[in-house]
């Protein structure tokens, strides 16, 4: 069984997915990390981030591996762990350029679909494109100001700068970031992190909540 949690940038997708996955006793998958890792490698190799052939050639010679652990995801490039470098402001700025490339999206989707279920998958198009047959789908939103206030604890920039960057990224990500028709949309603005997790758990089918998570 697959549960998808999509949403706009900094809406709480990875924190919420981690909490839901822990409650269900399954791993969670943070799909954005693969886009971020592709961006980091492109920046380090000084590639044109608009060039899918250049990026994909580099990714094939320097393969990435997503490790979906229950306590958080890690990304490896051969023996090097990239995880701590994936949330820098320079990756934030470049990743939307990389994420619109259809060839890169197909590369990410193939990696995700190869992972063994059950799991919770978070991103932008988990419920619409990658796992359209998921057993339960959620989509998280919050105003740019609230998201910027939350993110300010994790970035060196001030709230107005973060808010402006989030609005810009929302615009760039809009094409691939829309709720599935059968997703439950949750405004996380008035909710605590645990409040969002409990809202989702309460809406899951009973067989999932009781820990009887089937593998397909
Ligand atoms: N409901 C909430 N109340 C308060 N803080 C929250 C809530 N949800 C998430 N946060 C905080 O907001 C920040 C962003 O959350 P998180 O990284 O999970 O979002 P995300 O959607 O995965 O981000 P990104 O799109 O950049 O991957 C974190 O500091 C997290 O602890
Ligand atoms: N399924 C996904 C996941 C992520 N992206 C894009 C959107 C963002 O620009 C970037 C990083 O994602 P985040 O870590 O902020 O969730 O990757 C996407 O297009 N599709």
UniProtKB/TrEMBL annotation:
ATP binds at residues 7-15. It is found in: Cytoplasm. Its main location: cytoplasm. It catalyses: CMP + ATP = CDP + ADP; dCMP + ATP = dCDP + ADP. The keyword rRNA-binding does not apply. Keywords: ATP-binding, Cytoplasm, Kinase, Nucleotide-binding, Transferase. SUPFAM superfamilies: P-loop containing nucleoside triphosphate hydrolases. It is an enzyme of class 2 (transferase). It holds the Pfam family Cytidylate_kin. InterPro entries: Cytidylate_kin (IPR003136), Cytidylate_kinase_dom (IPR011994), P-loop_NTPase (IPR027417). It comes from the Bacteria. Its EC number is 2.7.4.25. One of its GO terms (molecular function) is kinase activity. Residues 3-204 form the Cytidylate kinase domain. HAMAP family: Cytidyl_kinase_type1. Belongs to the cytidylate kinase family. Type 1 subfamily. This is Cytidylate kinase. The lineage of its organism: Bacteria, Thermotogati, Deinococcota, Deinococci, Deinococcales.
